[in-house]
Design brief:
Blueprint lengths: L5 E6 L6 H14 L4 E5 L6 H7 L3 E2 L3 E5 L2 E5 L2 H7 L3 E4 L15 H10 L3 E7 L7 H8 L9 H5 L3 E5 L3 H9 L6 H9 L4 H30 L10 E6 L5 H13 L5 E8 L9 H13 L3 E6 L3 H11 L4 E5 L5 H6 L2 H9 L4 E5 L19 H24 L5 H19 L1 H19 L11 H50 L3 H12 L4 E7 L16 E8 L11 E4 L4 E6 L5 H66 L7 H33 L5 E5 L1 H12 L7 E3 L7 E3 L1 H18 L7 E7 L2 E7 L32 H11 L3 E6 L5 E8 L8 E2 L1
Parallel strand pairs: 1-7, 1-8, 2-3, 2-6, 6-7, 9-10, 9-12, 10-11, 12-13, 19-21
Antiparallel strand pairs: 4-5, 14-15, 14-17, 16-17, 18-20, 18-25, 21-22, 22-24, 23-24
């Protein structure tokens, strides 16, 4: 059975018309004779969307009960039994009611696809898992319902339903998205122009990446290797030399000229596994690339121009940035170089050859150590000095040997010397052997004259072969040593990377690994303090340096106090104590040092973020507090002052009924003012950790009436349903009463006339749940977390529909008593606040917490 196809309509925000566009497509398919049914469509009360359903066939929804409330979900089994060609299933990221077969709707859709049913669905960009935290930073709202990106990327078609922020806000203002009582709050919060613009950009960029994937897949399927300039991609080639930083910055400027261009850095490593580039330079250049928003890549290749162009064509690059050759003019006479060769073969890819300070100076690679040890070279020279005369004496004693045989035996001796001592002893053996052969074995004997041309040729071949063999043996030994060294360095760096990733503090872990790897006594990272800067003796002055990190015993406090100092940049230096390192080890230490600088920067950024977060929170609280004082305090003060001023006015005579009404107004305003001041004080104590809490066993049937009495006449119509067998709760009686007052006051504020709130209670699994239920406008689920922020109904939010300070204080007090407060949607519309407190099993009267 063929798997069904998934088509998704992607939107930047609610209300852009995803569901409407999905239903239009469903109608088009139905008109073409396709069997289309609606598995689930959520209209959100929007008349145009509901009208769009029209005469499309619908599968009845399944009704489920959860915690005493009925919910409707898609009947997956009924849709599978109906087996339509196309199923319309709205809201891909929706979370199913507990008890459903699948916890997420996208899993239901996967079952439909597996059954061969094509599915039309919708999703907003804020529900994509990879963008969830980004959207939260932009809008301040955390989306609880998410869908893995892989599910959406696997869709055969993803269509963007786009709308400008201004048009979407007009649609909101006309009442086409939310109910009128929610419009002002939405326009001032989630649907601000800045938020919508950022969400729109996220949707466009995400879809652009999806299109890139489809384009790459198509090119791969069709075997297309030519560059398609659908999007600017700038590739910069790095050799690991000092010119890399210049090339990276130049490539970044090239990429910045095109909006949305990609920057990629690539280093072509030798595929024989031997180290060629400076790992410290590459580490620093990788950090620079990533700081400029690019990505770093490393590929293997023997032919560098071919490997570079293969990479560029593979990523569909449009521009390639190379550095001018560092080789001297003499070297360029024999080879065109990487830059010229790459340019000649680049085809449609534009190549930029960038000059730099190192151009034309020649390659100054690291000093290559001898291939063999000094002891083996000494053995080789000794074998030459002693062995060649001994071999001559032996050959003279053997009769009937031709010159050809003598040459072959001497050649074997030279090879043996090369194997023992390397190149220079073998060259000496070849030179000595040729002289001995000429003197003792080539007519005329005992002279350096060669009479026959054949003998001259034989001796020439002998010298050439001896030199060639010696060179090959030396190169093989050198490469073997380099390969072993490169393997050890790679293993060391891999071990370092693993230890750093697994550690909670990367900088100490990195330094400790460096100390263990090279058997050092101590390692320290020093930073210049600014004192004695520029003075030649600053490396010895302790006041000029500060130890920012160290491991081991007695770490150095100045660069001169250690055996080896490795500068990282103008201010940082890594100092090693315990032993001096070889020149070959310094390269790997420089790579350690570069990573140490990155780890230090990350630690400091984390510290700055941790320091700035409470400061920003405190600043936000102070700003909100001023706004609260200017609004919430001013309103009851103005009402009380107006009532008292009217009563004191000698120009107006009030009858007893009017006088009582003014007194009630003043009394209610002052009560409201008193509650607000008490809430402000309790919130400040709660955040400072200075709020005293004394828990006790208390029954809700005792505390709920007291809370309603405190609210006065407005709470007279509140209905309560508290079972008599309900267990007591463990809480602070005074604070619990405050919590209930705030919850009920909020429900009263938003309940429509004639529909007062309801208070119910029940017990579940050691917890007592008290529900304050209203049938007002409710709060969108994506804003549930925000209603518990202090002063939430101030600032740029609507001041008549917000929830102020009460809910923030209530949640804080509930959590301080070991409970919680969470919102739920009231069936039929409205908001239910659920207060959960631990049930009291043993009386805890007077027990302090």
């Amino acid at each position: 059975m063929a798997r069904g196809e998934l088509r998704i309509y992607l939107g930047a925000a609610p209300g852009v018309g995803k569901t409407y566009a999905m239903l239009e497509e469903a109608h088009r398919r139905a008109e073409r004779g396709t069997d289309v049914v609606i598995g689930f469509v959520e209209t959100h009360g929007r008349t145009h969307t509901a009208a769009m359903i029209g005469d499309l066939a619908q599968v009845p929804r399944r009704t489920m009960t959860y915690r005493g409330v009925e919910f409707t979900e898609m009947d997956l089994d009924a849709v599978l039994a109906r087996r339509p060609e196309v199923a319309v299933v709205d809201e891909l990221a929706h979370t199913n009611v507990p008890g459903s077969r699948n916890d997420k709707r996208w899993r239901d859709i996967q079952e439909l696809l597996d059954a061969g049913i094509t599915v039309l669905s919708t999703v907003n960009v804020q529900h994509l898992e990879s963008l969830n935290d980004v959207v939260a930073q932009i809008t301040g709202t955390t989306q609880r319902e998410t869908v893995p990106d892989a599910v959406v990327r696997a869709a055969e078609q993803v269509e963007l339903v786009d709308m400008t922020p201004e048009a979407l806000r007009r649609r909101m203002a006309h009442g086409n998205i939310y109910r009128p009582d929610k419009i002002d709050a939405a326009l001032g919060n989630y649907f601000r122009v800045g938020n919508l613009t950022a969400l729109r950009e996220l949707a466009l960029l995400w879809l652009a990446d999806k299109v890139d994937e489809q384009l790459d897949a198509y090119r791969a399927q069709q075997g297309i290797s030519a560059t398609w300039e659908a999007r600017e991609r700038v590739v910069v080639a790095l050799t690991g030399g000092p010119e890399g930083a210049t090339l990276i910055r130049r490539a970044a400027r090239v990429a910045a000229r095109s909006k949305g261009a990609d920057l990629l850095a690539v280093h072509i490593a030798r595929n024989d596994g031997l180290a060629g580039a400076d790992p410290a330079q590459l580490a620093r250049q990788r950090v620079l690339v990533e700081s400029l928003g690019g990505t770093y890549h490393q590929v293997l290749g023997t032919d560098i121009p071919a490997a570079l162009l293969d990479f560029a064509q593979g990523v569909n690059a449009t521009q390639l940035v190379l550095g001018a050759s560092r080789r001297g003019r003499f070297a360029q006479l024999f080879s065109r170089g990487v830059g010229v060769t790459t340019t000649a073969l680049s085809g449609p890819i534009d190549v930029h050859l960038v000059t730099h300070a190192e151009a034309g100076r020649g390659r100054r690679g690291p000093v290559v150590p001898a291939a063999l040890s000094r002891r083996r070279r000494r053995y080789g020279f000794a074998l030459t000095v002693v062995g060649m005369p001994a071999l001559t004496a032996l050959l003279k004693a053997l009769p009937d040997l031709t010159l050809t045989n003598d040459i072959l035996i001497f050649l074997a001796a030279v090879v043996g010397v090369a194997l023992v001592g390397g190149l220079w002893p073998a060259l000496l053996a070849a030179l000595g052997g040729s002289l001995l052969l000429n003197w003792f074995f080539t007519p005329p004997y005992y002279t350096l004259t060669i009479a026959e041309a054949d003998n001259l040729l034989a001796l020439g071949v002998f010298v050439g072969v001896a030199v060639a063999v010696s060179w090959v043996v030396d190169v093989a030994a050198r490469r073997t040593r380099e390969a072993a060294r490169a393997s050890a360095d790679a293993q060391t760096l891999a071990t370092v990377a693993g230890s750093v990733l697994r550690g909670q503090r990367p900088l100490p872990a990195l330094l400790e690994r460096l100390r263990e790897t090279f058997a050092l006594r101590a390692v320290s990272v020093l930073e210049q303090t600014g004192e004695a800067t520029g003075r030649p003796d600053r490396d010895r002055e302790t006041q000029a340096w500060r130890v920012v990190a160290s491991v081991g015993e007695s770490p150095a406090g100045t660069p001169s106090a250690g055996e080896t100092a490795v500068p990282v940049d103008d201010r940082l230096t890594v100092v090693l104590c315990g032993r001096r390192l070889e020149a070959a080890d310094r390269r790997i230490v420089e790579a350690f040092a570069a990573q140490a600088a990155v780890a230090l920067r990350q630690e400091r950024l984390a510290e700055e973020a941790a320091t700035a977060r409470p400061l920003a929170e405190a600043d936000r609280m102070r700003t909100a507090l001023l706004a609260a004082v200017s609004h919430d305090l001013r309103t009851p003060l103005a009402s009380a002052k107006a009532a008292v001023s009217s009563l004191r006015s000698p120009d107006v005579e009030f009858d007893p009924e009017d006088r009582d009404e003014l007194l009630v107004t003043a009394d209610e305003s002052l009560d409201r003012l008193g509650r607000l001041v008490a809430n402000l004080l309790d919130m400040s104590r709660l955040q400072a950790g200075a709020l005293g809490i004394t828990v006790a066993s208390i029954g809700l049937e005792d505390v709920v009436p007291r809370a309603l009495d405190e609210l006065g006449p407005p709470a007279a119509d509140v209905s309560t349903d508290i079972p008599t067998e309900l267990p007591a709760v463990t809480a602070d009686p005074g604070l619990l009463e405050r919590v209930l007052v705030n919850l009920v006051a909020n429900a009263l504020r938003h309940s429509p006339p004639g529909q007062p709130p309801t208070i119910t209670a029940s017990a579940h699994s050691g917890l007592v749940e008290l529900r304050v239920i209203d049938t007002g406008p409710g709060i969108p689920e994506d804003q549930w977390d925000h209603v518990f922020l202090p002063f939430q109904r101030l600032g740029d939010r609507d001041t008549t529909t917000g929830v102020g300070l009460g809910l923030a204080l209530s949640r804080g007090l509930a959590e301080a008593m070991g409970g919680s407060i969470n919102p739920e949607t009231t069936p039929g519309g409205g908001l239910t606040m659920v207060l959960r407190l631990p049930a009291a099993t043993v009386a805890t009267e007077g027990a302090p917490e």
